[in-house]
Amino acid sequence: MSYKFDTLSLHAGQVPDSQYGARAQPIYLSSSFVFKDADQAASLFNMERGGHVYSRISNPTNAVLEERIAALEGGVGAVAVASGQAAMHLAVATLMGAGSHIVASRSLYGGSHNLLEYTLPRFGITTTFVDPRDIDAWKNAIRPETRLFFGETLGNPGLDVLDIPKVSALAHEHGLPLLVDSTFTTPYLVRPFDLGADLVFHSATKFLGGHGTVIGGLVVDSGAFDWAASGKFPTLAEPYDGFHGMNFAEESTVAAFLLRARREGLRDFGACLSPMNAFQILQGMETLPLRMARHIDNTRKVVTHLASLKGGAVESVVHPDLPEHPDHELAKQLLPKGSSSVFTFNLAGGRAAGRKFIEALKVFSHLANVGDAKSLVIHPASTTHFRMSDAALVAAGIHPGTIRLSIGLEDPDDLIEDINRGLSAAAKA
Amino acid sequence: MEITVAGQSAYVYNGGKTPAPADIAKQPVVVFIHGAQQDHSCWTLQSRWFAHHGFSAVVPDLPGHGRSGGEPLTSVEALADWIAALLDALGVEKATLVGHSMGSLVALETALRHPGRVSRLALIGSALPMPVADVLLDAAQGNEPKAVAMVNGWSYSATGQMGGNTVPGLWMLGMNKRLMECQKPGVFHIDLAACNAYARGLESLAALDLPVMVVAGSADRMTALKASRALAGAIRGAQLHVLPGSGHALMAERPDGVLDALIGFAAPAK
């Protein structure tokens, strides 16, 4: 007997409250937890007993969230943190220090790119960015000091499908783990561990929470990577003076990464998740399979409609469902349930058309987020990238008329009507 | 620590401490013996307590398992002799043995074959005999992923299948699945076949003359409470300690319950 995905989405990690029988997950909004006696206190600190001491390190509500995402991903456990960015930083900082090197896909969310390109070098960690579709580029970028491969299940902004089986196999040949940002896909659409990835992180702010309410992040460990055998990870496979000489890989054969991430990363960097936020994300995850199915269903209808307008108001649509997308076949193989409800299309007009399109919309919300239950839209050329010239935009892979949509759960006819309203306005720009 | 036992390298976890092998015998020794397709890490919490409370915790990876070298041994009797050899290698005359599932059979057999070497015996998730269903034996031989899924499905109570780990953030079923998956090919079937073939009868346990505790989960579907009760009943003076609601994976589902039982049995307050 093992429970299936939809059941785990509702229940995993949660044991009904033994004191009052609360069916919903209680929010343990407490900074700290009373010790039963001095012996129990000492045992908790020395990892002889499980339990909670202080909510920067662990919290009962957060622990339910951590188990739930681990169950859905097929991992051994997880650490909940304050945001997706905190999750990525925690993964990197747990694995390596100054002098280390990362090979990353160049098709990344801007926040991840900023961290790798500009911020981590200040701490001695450098990154080589590669075309995620070019396996030789990944291989050629490996250096003796490389410690990690990193990519997104669906790259930004072109929805490049990361060939996790190939990229992870190459990483493993060189004793390296593959970290994957699975925010856009969630475990409903793909479980990267099943394809060979070693670590996954999520911005839980997006589809996991699903309602645009709270910021949160999760790092999940497959437990499959052999840190000791690799010989490249002293933070995990050598004694750590900062925790009584603990050798995390000896302590836990399959959860060494998570032990260090919690015992050092949460302890020292402190990017913990509020239990209030954990509760909201758990509420969202209860309906994850239902919402994701609807997101994908609505997206297919909108993509089909936009694609039918090509040659007129629409210049192009970028989505792996479409045969002209370079990863159409790979998406069918790796993402059989569907690939993404976040995608872009290019208006035939330029920057001015983009502005008119956005301003005419009544159902889509104009804001900088994705993965809400409500449909969202942004025009990069007039918002996130407004300082860039048209030529610079094109060099960055963004058209002046590029519109990014995050398709929500509304009636798809209303979404299509809203898009048509925007296209009519754009045509008059 | 890495030592040599019976001519093969053996890895021994020491509850988070790093004693020299020669220092092990300077304190009372507790040996923790893991079950089929497992390694030392199933004992981390309990062994850490003993290592930090005046005992030497000796938590080996059995031959061919985890970090230990050699081939997996094919019978409970051979494994029992290996435990005696482990004690020899560490210069330990007598030790408390704690075993789970297959490890409990190894502990039991060690006490019978080498009675002078065992001071106390804690048998966790245990039954005698310990028959293994043909469907599982077949899967372990020809389809290890299927066998892993079967054991994971049967090792946890219905509640445990939903999680609720006392150790924050760790998903018990995922941990156990991955730990089983990372053992070497072929180990699983050898371990299960050894359990299945262990033919000692309950009546032979009358020869035991030492304190014995049997720890059972009331929701154990691998070694049912009824069988654990019969085992305890066949051993003169044996205690039976039942952990309500726990399945077979007692150290994961009820880590504090197992630890408290062990403390009461092997390290009672003076």
Beta-strand segment tally of chain A: 12
> What is the topology, as strand order, of the major beta sheet of chain B?
1-2-4-3-5-6-7-8
Low-confidence stretches of chain B: none
How would you state the average pLDDT of chain B, rounded?
A: 97
Q: Which structural category fits the helices and strands of chain B? A: alpha/beta
Q: How much helical structure, as a percent, in the residues of chain A?
A: 40-55%
Indicate the radius of gyration of chain A in whole angstroms: 22 Å
Specify the oligomeric state.
heterodimer
| Cα separation of the termini of chain A | 60 Å
Tally of separate helices of chain B: 10
Class computed from helices, strands and strand pairing of chain A: alpha/beta
Q: Give helix % range of chain B.
A: 25-40%
The proportion of strand residues of chain B reads 15-25%
Instruction: Tell me the strand percentage band of chain A.
Output: 5-15%
Number of strands of chain B: 8
Largest sheet of chain A: 7 strands, mixed
Cα-atom radius of gyration of chain B: 17 Å
The overall pLDDT average of chain A reads 95
Descriptive terms for the model:
heterodimer, A: 429 residues, alpha/beta, seven-stranded mixed beta sheet, five-stranded mixed beta sheet, 19 helices, 13% strand, globular, B: 270 residues, eight-stranded mixed beta sheet, 37% helix
Short description:
The complex is a heterodimer of chains A (429) and B (270). Chain A is an alpha/beta fold. Chain A has 19 helices and twelve strands.
Helices and strands, with pairings:
The complex is a heterodimer of chains A (429) and B (270).
Chain A: H1 5-11, H2 38-45, H3 60-73, E1 77-81, H4 84-95, E2 101-105, H5 110-119, E3 126-130, H6 135-141, E4 146-152, H7 164-173, E5 178-181, H8 186-189, H9 192-195, E6 199-203, E7 217-221, H10 227-230, H11 234-237, H12 248-251, H13 256-269, H14 275-286, H15 288-308, E8 314-318, H16 328-334, E9 342-347, H17 351-360, E10 365-366, E11 376-378, H18 390-395, E12 402-406, H19 412-427
Parallel strand pairs in A: 2-3, 2-4, 4-5, 5-6, 10-11
Antiparallel strand pairs in A: 1-7, 6-7, 8-9, 9-12, 11-12
Helix pairs in contact in A: 1-3, 3-14, 4-13, 17-19
Chain B: E1 2-5, E2 8-13, E3 29-33, H1 44-51, E4 56-60, H2 76-89, E5 95-100, H3 102-113, E6 118-124, H4 134-142, H5 144-155, H6 172-181, H7 187-197, E7 212-217, H8 225-233, E8 239-243, H9 250-253, H10 255-266
Parallel strand pairs in B: 3-4, 3-5, 5-6, 6-7, 7-8
Antiparallel strand pairs in B: 1-2, 2-4
Helix pairs in contact in B: 1-10, 2-3, 4-5, 4-7, 5-6
